[in-house]
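INTERNAL AUDIT FORM
Audit reference: QA-55
Scope: verify that the stored structure record matches its stored sequence.
Auditor: D.O.
Record contents follow.
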Amino acid sequence: MPSHNRFKTSALAALMMTSAMMMQEAHALTVYTAGPGALAKSLASGFEKQTGIKVNIFQATTGKVMARLEAEQANPQADVLISASWDTAEDLHQRGWLLPYQSPNAAKVPDAYKSADFVAQGISALGIVWNSKSNTPEPKSWSDLTGPAFKNNVTMPDPALSGASADLLIGLQNAEGEQAWQLFDRLKSNGLVISGPNAQAVAPVLQGAKAAVFGAVDYVTYNNIAQGESVKVVFPQDGTVAVPRPMMILKNSQHAADAKAFVDYVLSPEGQQQVAAAWLMPARTDIKAQRPLITEIKLLPQRASEGSERAATLQRFRTLFGQ
């Protein structure tokens, strides 16, 4: 074969390969998720294996995910969003950013954890994470952490960075009103340290530098326990909040059919078993879990909060702790 023909053939092959790669990339689904990262990768892998559709993942805290979403308003990148806070889904619904979709696989998801345009991927709860080797008494209620044994010995995730922590703050305020703020006053006087997102608050307790976390996400600690850490999840007897992790499709998605298929996969028995393997409560009631379920935890009465109310509550918290 003449050299110029070989050149044309190789150039054509390269062009076809580049075009195929571009088509494949264009066909990729983009999922923004507020952890856990290993679960997101597992779901993406299972979905790609089943459908052939590649999934690009951006995983960060709820605050960072939402900031990125806001920054990209003019040129939206995300197709599917999984948040750690139900209120973020309510907010995006009010703003008209979501594509209505009810997956047939959501039939076994309780009504409280689904709406016309978002549905729980899974559910966590907030608890006290206590180091059992800390020479402190095992706490039974939130207020136990205001006692002398826990002086300068307690951390808390920053509600401005952790959607789940914000949900607990609002849940306590909704349930107890000013008594909740009196509790936070006592915690502050007792040396409570506000420690960034959830992982940053839990780290010193795992290391033994602190005794307990006020309001940590439970599934992370169940995973730590499975790896041999000397910590325990305590659900306070005075009640806590359940934190459904809403999954939603963005209205501006260029791959709506693929996004719906991804939601279907996450809510399928296979997807929900992966959720359970990450120590979360599955959203579906017919999938077994390896940790306590909603029915085994005392929950505070929760109601949806307006965006302005949420902002005011977070501002009051920041002012109290001088942030």
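Auditor finding: record pair retrieved intact. The two ends are 73 Å apart (CA to CA).
Action required: none
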